[in-house]
Predict the structure of Amidohydrolase.
Amino acid sequence: MSDVIDRPLLDEEKPAASRLRIVDCDVHPSLRSTDDLNEFLPKRWQQHLKEYGSHLRTPYLFTTPYPRSSPLIARRDAWPPTGGPPGSDLAFMQKQHLDPFDVEFGILQVLDLFIFSQQNLEFGAAIQRAINDWQLAFWSHRDPRLKASILVGQDGVDLAIAEIERCAKIGEYIQINVSPRANEPLGRRRYWPIYERAEALDLPLGIHVGGYGGHAPTGGGWPSYYVEEHQSNAHTIAAQLASLVIEGVPERFPKLKIVFIEGGFGWIPSAVWRMDQHFERFRSEVPHLKRKPSEYVREHFWFTTQPIDEPDEARHLRSLIEWVGIDRLLFSSDYPHWDFDDPRFAFKTPLTDAERKKIFSTNARAVYKF
């Protein structure tokens, strides 16, 4: 993580023609208010939102189970001067992030209304549909650098398929987003129709941390502190990686590309080493797997970089990057959140120009076909 809060760009750091243009795979836009969705929501669901609001898998409305370290988990300097929450003002986002860092493409990741955690699946689908349309109208059409994702709740598979098909016909979305905290582990067959459509449409499956599956976010139960809950993001992604691989999703859908977003990558080597070790001992239990888990991981999965685990010695980070694979990493800033990674300082270890270009640009361009 880079401490850049309230630190403006210096003149000599402003964009130059020779600077590497970046693809930022994790940019968070926000609703200024839920009224932004009115033009995209049927009257029935507008009224439902006003009268009943969200019905989530946790007993918390308009907040999360743990107090955040900063309001709306945002940088102090990311609150727009025009009012509204961080990420809700396109002009301010352009001035503070897209222009100075020369972002060639930014992939939108919407977290408003706990979009994946709605218990009322019909209401959740209506909100997801509205937000998918809002992404285009309020962001992508106003700044072509910003790319929208098809957000679907995978626990209503039929509703998700319908929304994927609707958005695919529009042809402006670059991935399908699902939650890592659904009712069941993501490798389960009930979710496979979504993966089948993603593969058929050649759209990567994006899995961004967050949401609530109704279960404790750690294997040991409910945490006491926000710092514990935040730590659990990596555990959640590791568990879902194991579920997808061992239940055979990459074997069944060999052309499917899966991108884990905001889960970091420091945990990958030990998780994969353990999967490989267990596979050798228990392979008779999973005859549907034709190869070692590590081979599936290295061919079908990509990982965005933020939050970067930062060991004391730079060479350890370098070794970690090499093990995961330069080709597997996609740069992400997490703008405008408090643990934003500044692209100028994100990697505290030497990288060659060719390696930087891969992580900051060409890997994402290959995955998303920009």
